[in-house]
Design a protein that fits this description.
mainly alpha, 8% strand
Length: 149
């Protein structure tokens, strides 16, 4: 959710990661994999023992604050639940606006939904786009403030 894609490092064995099911592609001069990660089932990483270097090293700001004793685990879990609720609202609105393929990054689906022509004859189209804009703004603010480092 925090990034559209993750860059692989030279030390990552790309062919081995692809055999494990990670969809790797080129972006400019770098090899990356898209988010949401196809190896993550929503709770667990299917390739945890062999995950890429960035995944091994990454700690979100929320985890860093818990590790430093500046935030309790219970408070962090409440923030995570709040973020998940916001994501669910955004996803629901995206579906109502015709963005039903959940494989692209949430930000890409948002851009597509907001770029689509507004059907002024529809009872809900413009209203859903307005709600989506507000909900996505709230989600991005929460991610920026609580999760990004």
């Amino acid at each position: 959710m925090l990034f559209a894609d993750v860059e692989l490092r030279k030390s990552d064995r790309t062919s081995a990661l692809e055999k494990l099911g990670l969809a790797v592609f080129k972006r400019g001069r770098h090899r990356v994999f898209a988010q949401p990660c196809g190896c993550f089932d929503g709770r667990h990483c299917a390739i945890y023992e062999d995950r890429p270097t960035h995944c091994q090293a990454f700690e979100c700001g929320l985890l860093q604050r818990v590790s430093a004793g500046k935030l309790t685990a219970a408070a962090a879990l409440k923030t995570i639940a709040q973020a998940k609720r916001k994501v669910a609202r955004v996803e629901s609105l995206l579906q109502k606006l015709g963005e039903e393929d959940a494989s692209p990054a949430l930000t890409e689906r948002y851009v597509a939904a907001m770029s689509a022509p507004v059907d002024l004859a529809s009872n809900h189209g413009p209203d859903h786009q307005g709600q989506l804009m507000r909900q996505m703004g709230e989600l991005m603010e929460l991610l920026e403030v609580k999760f990004r480092t």
